[in-house]
Amino acid sequence: MINFITLSSLLLLVPSAFGAAILRRDNGCNGWPSVGIKDNNASFELWAHYESRVTVPLALTSFSNDTSNGNSSATKAYLAPDDLGGTVIASLFQLNNSGLVGIGSPDANGVNATWISNSVDTGGSAPFSLAADANEAGIADDYCEVPNTDPHGPLIDGPLLGVMGSTSGWAICNRIDIPLFQGVVFNPASYSSSYGFNFTTCQNVTIYLRSDALGNLS
Ligand SMILES: *[C@@H]1O[C@H](CO)[C@@H](O)[C@H](O)[C@H]1NC(C)=O
Ligand SMILES: *[C@@H]1O[C@H](CO)[C@@H](O)[C@H](O)[C@H]1NC(C)=O
Ligand SMILES: *[C@@H]1O[C@H](CO)[C@@H](O)[C@H](O)[C@H]1NC(C)=O
Ligand SMILES: *[C@@H]1O[C@H](CO)[C@@H](O)[C@H](O)[C@H]1NC(C)=O
Ligand SMILES: *[C@@H]1O[C@H](CO)[C@@H](O)[C@H](O)[C@H]1NC(C)=O
Ligand SMILES: *[C@@H]1O[C@H](CO)[C@@H](O)[C@H](O)[C@H]1NC(C)=O
Ligand SMILES: *[C@@H]1O[C@H](CO)[C@@H](O)[C@H](O)[C@H]1NC(C)=O
């Protein structure tokens, strides 16, 4: 645990519900001049890097095929590969009040919908909910951009998304209801089935950020 604590001294470990963590950038991260998103107005993409080194863009999706009006009526959304999670709700992310925010399609007034990150449960998905005010993001969260170090760091051109003091718990798993759909799962286990995921299909990934603001969006 000593190494873990040392590595995590730059992270804020906020236990919320047992086995759950939400996604927030903490003051330690803000103190790193050479990594991460410095301005809350800078948007970024989230990408998954498989152990095979294949990379895929992630998006907030609804896990449903509802494209009735092109704008999903969903009020919950989940991190998933952008082409394998159903209707895409947002592909860009921002920080607001230190919280991770998905930037959805514009409404009738041209104001982009705001999707704030909710608690990530061990074995479950990374859920977001529609919010009237992006300032609600990050109130009880635990998200951090982590310097790009091992095990896969040198291969990955961007800061990593960490949660609960670790960047290594992320995986992409098939859904059970629609096996062609996949989602991002944190610390998958057999009980991930209660979140709708088929544990035997899970593949570990590292999640990283890409942005014009980081200079790694090619
Ligand atoms: C983003 O915020 C920074 C200061 O935090 C400011 O310098 C910059 O002009 C802003 N950019 C936009 C596009 O608003
Ligand atoms: C949703 O899309 C998937 C993948 O294309 C397909 O297999 C499934 O049958 C669709 N479900 C519905 C309810 O249309
Ligand atoms: C989604 O909603 C916005 C605003 O209501 C509208 O401008 C846009 O055309 C809609 N997109 C589709 C595909 O219907
Ligand atoms: C609103 O969303 C669109 C993509 O749907 C994006 O191009 C645009 O930058 C967003 N606007 C803001 C202010 O984030
Ligand atoms: C947070 O979002 C609100 C909109 O809900 C916006 O007015 C505010 O400027 C944002 N704050 C930052 C720091 O991005
Ligand atoms: C995936 O990561 C977990 C730890 O997060 C580890 O226990 C497991 O062995 C990894 N699986 C593979 C195939 O490397
Ligand atoms: C889980 O995936 C495996 C491998 O694709 C498949 O054989 C099994 O039927 C799936 N289980 C469920 C509950 O969908």
Class computed from helices, strands and strand pairing: mainly beta
Low-confidence stretches: 1-34
SSE ordering: HEHEEEEEEEEEEEEE
Q: List the total number of helices.
A: 2
Strand elements, count: 14
Sheet-strand content, in percent, reads 35-45%
Could you tell me the radius of gyration in angstroms?
A: 16 Å
Ligands bound, unique:
2-acetamido-2-deoxy-beta-D-glucopyranose
- Report mean pLDDT, rounded to a whole number: 75
- Please state how the strands of the largest beta sheet are arranged side by side: 3-4-9-7-6-5
Q: How many discrete domains?
A: 1
The portion of residues assigned to helices is under 10%
What multimeric state do the chains show?
A: single chain
- From the spread of the alpha carbons, the general shape counts as globular
Summarize the biggest pleated sheet.
6 strands, antiparallel, barrel
Distance between the termini: 38 Å
Written overview of the protein:
- The chain has one domain.
- The chain is built from 2 helices and 14 strands.
- The chain is globular and about 40 Å long.
- The chain is mainly beta and 218 residues long.
- The strands form 3 sheets. It has a 6-stranded antiparallel β-barrel. A two-stranded antiparallel ribbon has the order 1-8.
- Helices cover 5% and strands 39% of the residues.
- The protein binds 2-acetamido-2-deoxy-beta-D-glucopyranose (7 copies).
- Keywords: Signal.
- Residues 1-19 form the signal peptide.
